[in-house]
Write a structure and sequence with these properties.
A hairpin with a 2-residue loop joins β7 (192-197) and β8 (200-206). It contains 17 helices and 20 strands. Helix content is 34%, strand content 20%. The protein is of the alpha/beta class and 487 residues long. The termini are far apart. The protein has 2 domains: 14-220, Rossmann fold, CATH 3.40.50.300; 243-481, Rossmann fold, CATH 3.40.50.
Length: 487
């Protein structure tokens, strides 16, 4: 919901739009691109008023408004050049491959956004897909470009390259609205910052006037205390690992993502951070640990026992899995909070099932208790999960995975797309799990997150694990991820 929001962005300016999940950022941007009609207010573009009664996506595109969404809208089976023309109202009835390829290359050179225009989108890295999305918007005449969480799936190097592209667009006279939860990025790229809280604008100032601490305070309406840590638990040399991955090999979506004889141990009372650039085997490892991909070799041992690699057996053994993609793999839109909370339950779980049927009263009570404990708003077990903000939806996913006190938690990109407050909540839950003697395997592309939380770090490079030195900084870890160092 929006309450009297006013927003201005000038040509040749990068405006950062900040706010907690549910603050109104997406609603406001959907008004700009014609997906939501406001109840009141006015919209001007390039000094000319917009007829909101007839405002829609096609009208927005015609007036130079383009948006690159957090989740790619490109067609994976088509090439970049084909995607640039697909669905373009200005395109003719015929697709001329050579001409379209030359046009795509010219657009890429003009804006200095390097993209292999002949390759299928499914074969591109996240950074390349992001640049292709921007090219598509610019190719359709965007003069106001909205970037929604553009670095959510990018490596630090890809994010740095994107910042350079954003600055070049600004210098070329394009207006850019940059939506991000990463305050350091805002400091690096924005000229001005507008902050939403509960549907209202609480600040709109020059970026140089605020630091990351002040930005966070304005977003949340309070100060965040330092993240609590504790000394790692000591263990005897004879202690058995809570989770052991032994000789794990599997095919991958590409040669770089094929797993090659992985060996890894995670002990009770520690967080092991696994870092890597997307496409180096993280998804394949996650799918094996979730029980949905069968490896070609190797085994998973939980609590000293080899476990059959299927979801039910892994969960019964005490391994919980917090998915890195709550939209397609973690939660089910159209289902209620209660249905999602018991989604991974088995028919013989006597807490929620009786004679093969769901005990709806028990599911409702357990979900309500979890919602109150984890601060899920609103705490209504019957509410559709799709009506919750990203932060509250992720809280439900965390509550479900921690339900039953699992011995091992595999958390994959657990704070992707979350605001600073929601991300802090997830971090605190991981540390609490560690303090309670649980074993946590944190698989994340967020290098700062892993460095802040993990007791030990390992890198996944082209499907192989490489050790990192204790206390290694970002530069040293980055070199390992690029294949330039490490054991």
């Amino acid at each position: 919901m929006l309450d009297g929001v006013s927003l201005e962005v000038a040509a040749g300016e990068v405006l950062a739009l900040l706010g907690e999940n549910g603050a109104g950022k997406s609603t406001l941007m959907n008004v700009l691109v014609g997906l939501v009609k406001p109840d009141a207010g006015a919209l001007d573009l390039a000094g000319a008023p917009v007829d909101l009664a007839h405002w829609g996506p096609r009208a927005a595109q015609a007036r130079g408004v383009g948006m690159v969404h957090q989740h790619s809208a490109l067609v994976p089976a088509l090439t970049v050049a084909e995607n640039l023309r697909f669905g373009d109202p200005a395109a003719g009835p015929w697709f001329r491959p050579r001409a379209e390829r030359r046009a795509a290359e010219a657009l890429s050179r003009r804006f200095e956004l390097e993209v292999p225009v002949d390759r299928r989108v499914a074969e591109l890295s996240p950074g390349q897909r992001q640049r292709a999305e921007i090219l598509r918007a610019l190719g359709r005449g965007a003069r106001l470009l909205i970037l929604d969480e553009p670095t959510a799936v990018l490596t630090p190097n890809e994010a740095t390259a994107l910042f350079g592209a954003v600055r070049r667009l600004r210098d070329a006279g394009c207006a850019v609205i940059f939506i991000s939860h990463k305050l350091a990025e805002v400091e690096a790229v924005a000229d001005r910052v507008t902050i939403l809280r509960r549907g209202c604008v609480v600040a709109s100032v020059a970026a140089r006037e605020l630091d990351a601490h002040e930005l966070g305070r304005l977003m949340l309406g309070r100060d965040l205390p330092p993240l609590g840590r504790r000394v790692a638990m000591s263990r005897s040399a004879a202690a058995a690992p809570a989770l052991a991955i032994r000789g794990l090999s599997t095919s991958g979506a590409s040669e770089a993502s094929r797993l090659r004889g992985l060996d890894l141990e995670v002990f009770a009372g520690e967080i092991v951070g696994l870092v890597g650039i997307d496409g180096n085997g993280q998804r394949e490892l996650e799918e094996v640990l979730a029980g949905v991909r069968r490896p070609s070799a190797g085994e998973i041992v939980v609590g000293g026992r080899r476990v059959a690699l299927n979801p039910r057996a892994l969960r019964r053994a005490g391994l919980a899995h917090l998915s890195g993609d709550r939209e397609s793999a973690g939660l089910v839109r159209g289902m209620s909070l209660a249905q999602n909370f018991i989604l991974k339950g088995s028919w013989d779980d006597r807490r929620f099932f009786r004679h093969g049927r769901i005990d709806h009263a028990a599911a409702w009570l357990a979900t309500r208790a979890a919602a109150l404990r984890f601060g899920i708003v609103p705490p209504d077990p019957e509410r559709d999960i799709s009506s919750l903000s990203g932060g509250n939806a992720q809280k439900l996913a965390v509550a479900r995975e921690l339900d039953g006190d699992p011995a091992v938690l595999v958390a994959v990109n657990p704070t992707r797309g979350l605001d600073v407050g929601s991300a802090r909540f997830v971090h605190e839950q991981l540390l609490a799990r560690r303090a309670a003697g649980g074993a946590v395997l944190l698989i994340s592309t967020e290098l700062d997150e892993v460095i802040a939380l993990a007791d030990r770090l390992v890198a996944l490079v082209r499907g192989e694990l490489r050790a990192t030195l204790p206390g290694a900084d970002r530069a040293a870890i980055g070199a390992i991820l690029l294949g330039e160092g490490g054991a």
